Amino acid sequence: MDWPAWPSNMPMVDTGDVWSRLPEAQLPMMKETPTGYQVQFAAAGIKPSDLRVTIDNNILKVQGESKSEHDGWEYTSSIERSIQLPKNIDATAIEAISDHGMLCISVPKMELQASEAPRLIPIKPAPSSPTKK
Questions:
Q1: Burial of 75 by CB count in 10 Å (0-12 exposed, 13-18 middle, 19+ buried)?
Q2: 3-state secondary structure of 18
Q3: CB-based burial of residue 45 (10 Å sphere; 0-12 exposed, 13-18 middle, 19+ buried)?
């Protein structure tokens, strides 16, 4: 069986495994702004009430499923996507808006606390051991 050609206006992202190839439009897109990050997920066919957005350990996860029936056929649309966010985010102020099949998520930045900022750890010499006589 020959597979139909992929539409030329929808580029593919190839990770090397033919089964992991996704249309670029299905991948999350993230853009950094001076005040935060804007993340977009395609969620066509899924109502906002059927979507769930969570954040855990700076991983933003979008899940959703929608079922419909037409002419005796049952259709299911589902999405499950994750994206790793940087450490400098304010997870308590994240907002999500669904607009015509696109889920737009605003993730504000925050200053890292001194304890969270990367720091250089000095390397000390080993304590000298007593010499044998």
A1: exposed
A2: helix
A3: middle
pLDDT in tens, 54-77: 999 999 998 988 888 888 888 888
Q: Whose CA is closest to 23, among 31, 14, 35, 32?
A: 14
Whole-angstrom Cα distance, residue 108 to residue 106? 6
- Is-contact 57 50, C-beta < 8 A? no
**Number of other CB atoms surrounding residue 9 within 10 Å:** 6
Q: How much is the mean pLDDT over the chain? A: 77
Residue 66, both tokens = 């929608």
Q: State whether residue 4 is helix, strand or coil.
A: coil
71 CB-contact burial (10 Å; exposed 0-12 / middle 13-18 / buried 19+): exposed
Contact status, residue 79 vs residue 43, Cβ threshold 8 Å: yes
Nearest to 65 by CA among 83, 41, 49, 54: 49
Answer for the pair 110, 103: CB distance below 8 angstroms, yes or no. Answer: no
